[in-house]
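Attaching the record inline, Q. Sequence:
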Amino acid sequence: MLDREGFRPNVGIILLNANNEVWWGKRVREHSWQFPQGGIKYGESPEQAMFRELEEETGLRPEHVKVIGRTRDWLRYEVPDHFIKREIRGHYKGQKQIWFLLRMVGRDCDVNLRASNHPEFDAWRWHDYWVPLDVVIEFKRGVYQLALQELSRYIHRTEHPNRNRYLRQQQPGETGPRTPPKTEP
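Structure, as predicted:
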């Protein structure tokens, strides 16, 4: 299911633990790491798709998480041609995503990467909030940054003692969104 511009509707999931670290999964048989994400099926709302994808990819059910927020609008990324199957080139451009920020209220042992017959991940770990920007595949980096920036407003200053190290303070007279600090390799 593609929109008129060639983007497939999709959801992305940023899952936080009690320390405001994000859940980060390693793709099966690859050396790439990402957040859980997946397509929205015909007739499904973004929230229904998010809970389905969350369970398929992590084994977590609605009772294991609390929805904290979601992006206001669709965030888009284009997929480079060499990643697109030949038969859909020219029609498919990429993904448009609604991103959800969830708080894990279950335990780490509730995660089950084998919850579906087609596992997406073979390992996972918790990371500082901005770390994934450095290691996500390049064509998704912009969307990840936009999602993390927009959803960071739901993380209250009192929830994490190191929040200031994640968000640069806006200077007097400056406009626009706050940006994450540059990290050294």
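The chain has four helices and eight strands. Residues 157-185 have pLDDT under 50 and may be disordered.

More tomorrow.
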